[in-house]
From TrEMBL:
<protein>
    <recommendedName>
        <fullName>DUF559 domain-containing protein</fullName>
    </recommendedName>
</protein>
<dbReference type="InterPro" id="IPR011335">
    <property type="entry name" value="Restrct_endonuc-II-like"/>
</dbReference>
């Protein structure tokens, strides 16, 4: 079974993104603004929609309605039907009308100033109401719908983005994704259907995903460490300092007292504040590694970071984790799945 879409012309939109200099509070404010604008757009589209059932918005539209801070489109990937200028609507099996059964052959509908691209699902929809009269697919359902277009790394990034420490939607956990995929498999089995395309990729992504991240950069950094054979670090580890204050470490190996931090901030006051924070962490006996956005985009620099972290791990634990060549993400996922099931 696959998601089937129709095409539609582009008439709307700008791509939203946040710079490294955007503070956490500013970023959340931008997320709320983006979400509220999308809610207004979807509510207006509902008013002129000619369907007999309420629209269920999906894919990129659903991500905007849930207020996620990252979407696959921010990577520069151009998938025309998934662009934010379209309203993506999914139709469930119980709502299929005759015209929906030929969705793959229909042109997109234009309701007033809105271009709508339809998808149809062979499994019942899981939805959330984000505002009165505005409904979209749930986080897990949206994640599964995206799976057929995304590579494994993008799928992990999207899953992480749905499990941020601070979200505008209901908090998600790894177990929520596991339970959802189990439900999909069980539904397909009971109804003698094929599971949706992409579900195996979702299964492979699960062991690489992490709850409680703060940014996509942290996800990228964690995946690089894993690919070189290093253990999966703790995400946002809570460290109580000797003065009683609490700090959150981006990526940590607590048994070795190693802290790896992503820092894309450039405001002067933030540098001064972070320098004090770093000094306090080191005073607790922790080794501190800082990774900037420039380093994260440079393979040679990132390899140097991995070598230094691996060397520190070996000195503090006696174990040499570093691989001579990095694994592919698929290989790393297979290793993690073996641990999960082993």
């Amino acid at each position: 079974m696959e998601w089937i879409y129709t095409d539609a012309p582009a008439i709307y939109g700008r791509r939203m993104g946040y710079s490294d200099e955007t503070s956490a509070s500013e970023a959340r404010g931008l997320q709320r603004e983006r979400r509220d604008l999308e809610v207004q757009r979807c509510a207006a589209a509902e008013d002129v929609c000619g369907r007999q059932v309420a629209c269920v918005f999906a894919l990129t539209t659903a991500l905007a309605l849930m207020g996620l801070d990252w979407t696959p489109l921010t990577t520069g990937v151009t998938r025309r039907r998934l662009r934010p200028e379209y309203l993506q609507v999914v139709v469930g099996p119980s709502d299929l009308k005759p015209e929906d059964r030929i969705a793959s052959k229909r042109h997109g509908r234009v309701y007033g100033r809105f271009s709508v691209t339809y998808f149809k699902s062979g499994i019942p929809l899981k939805t959330i109401e984000v505002a009165p009269g505005v409904t979209c697919t749930s986080c897990a359902f949206t994640w599964l719908m995206f799976a057929q277009w995304l590579d494994l790394e993008e799928l992990v990034k999207l899953g992480d983005a749905m499990m941020r420490r601070y979200t505008l939607h209901e908090m998600m956990t790894i177990q929520d994704f596991v339970d959802f995929l189990d439900w999909v498999d069980e539904y397909a089995r009971r109804n003698h259907r094929y599971a949706p395309r992409g579900i195996m990729k979702c299964r492979k992504a699960l062991p690489l995903m992490a709850q409680g991240t703060d940014s996509v950069a942290e996800t990228m950094l964690r995946l690089i460490l894993i690919r070189y054979g290093l253990p999966i670090p703790c995400v946002n580890y809570q460290l109580v300092l000797r003065d009683g204050s609490l700090v959150f470490l981006d990526l940590a190996y607590p048994e070795a007292k190693i802290d790896i931090e992503y820092d894309g901030r450039h405001h002067r006051y933030q540098w001064a504040r972070d320098a004090q924070r770093t000094m306090k962490i080191r005073a607790e006996g922790w080794e501190y590694f800082q990774v900037t956005s420039e380093m994260l985009s440079d393979d040679e620099q990132m390899f140097m970071v991995v070598v230094l972290v691996a060397r520190c791990l070996k000195e503090r634990t006696g174990k040499d984790y570093l691989l001579p060549q990095p694994l592919t993400l698929e290989q790393a996922a297979d290793q993690r799945r073996a641990v999960w099931h082993g």
